[in-house]
Amino acid sequence: MSRIPVLTTVGEVRKTVGEWRCSGRTIGFVPTMGALHPGHLSLVSLALEHADRVIVSIYVNPAQFGPDEDYESYPRTFRDDIDKLEKVGANAVFLPEKDTIYPEGFSTSVHVCNLTDTLCGKYRPGHFDGVATVCAVFFGIVQPDIAVFGKKDAQQLAVIKRMVLDQRFAIKIIGADIYRERDGLAMSSRNRYLRPIERMQATALFRGLSRAAELACKGERDAGILCEVARQVIEKSPLAVIQYLEIVDQDTMKSVEKLDGPGLLAVSAYFGKTRLIDNIVLDPDASYKED
């Protein structure tokens, strides 16, 4: 039996967090949908560096899935997830039922304007409303001092930062670096959907992004050229079907035509039925070193 507290109700969370606060502890929060991998656990480790106590939520949020997406089949490995969280040092797990987050009569939706019109938002209508809404609910329940989100979901991170700023949540949002496999593939719960040949070819995403970053460090500023170089590398993998490949401002998520400062090169691509996302920051002022 797990020794880490597994909380299922709002009352249990507030009681636990209240006790921590009464003893002078700061609170960190890491929201997840479970199916945890080392990338998720790195978020927890980072939160533990910034807070005295860390609570992790595991909740597959129906509001951020489209009608043809994988809500029903999304991996649910709760027991294994809890064991992993205990080993990494999390102090509590919040494992709510659907009705705990969306009780009968729930009728509120949080929409962050402008940031959600591009990249993933263009192809997943309503997705970021679901993300912002569930995070607002979690923030209201947990009331953490800090919350950690992965930079792989760069648009999501920008949306949450904007929501926290606009709604005056007293929470510091921390972005965690992308956690990658040894071959460069960004870790994702959906990687387990990939067939072996798809998994092998999916490494093309990071190779393409890295090639563009190399050119940016060597002086290339034209966004169109940088995107085309990345595209050519990625499309050498026959199974890669690019959905979008674009350089945007990291804060506004709007396209840029020329790098006047750091820009985010973001990509979404299908390998078979599995949709993957990745990104890299192109910094024209960074130095590039040959291996």
Characterise the protein shown here.
The chain has 291 residues and is α/β, with parallel strands linked by helices. It has 2 domains: 6-176, Rossmann fold (3-Layer(aba) Sandwich), CATH 3.40.50.620; 193-282, Pantoate-beta-alanine ligase, C-terminal domain (Pantoate--beta-alanine Ligase, Chain: A,domain 2, 2-Layer Sandwich), CATH 3.30.1300. It has 10 helices and 9 strands. A 6-stranded parallel beta sheet has the order 1-4-3-2-5-6, sandwiched between helices. Strands 7-8-9 form a 3-stranded antiparallel beta sheet. Helix 6 (127-142) packs across helix 7 (154-167).
Unreliable spans are none
CATH fold field value of the largest domain: Rossmann fold
Main beta sheet: 6 strands, parallel
Identify the CATH architecture of the largest domain: 3-Layer(aba) Sandwich
Please compute the radius of gyration using only Cα atoms. Answer: 19 Å
Strand content: 15-25%
The spatial strand order of the largest sheet comes to: 1-4-3-2-5-6
How far apart the termini lie comes to 48 Å
Order of helices and strands: EHEHEHEHHHEHEHHHEEE
Give the helix level as a range of percent. 25-40%
Total count of domains: 2
**Helices and strands: which structural class?**
alpha/beta
Name the CATH superfamily assignment of the largest domain. Answer: HUPs
**Overall residue-averaged pLDDT value:** 96
- Specify the CATH class of the largest domain: Alpha Beta
Principal-axes shape call: globular
Number of strands: 9
Determine the number of helices (DSSP H or I, runs of at least 4 residues).
10
Q: For this entry, what is the oligomeric state of its chains?
A: single chain
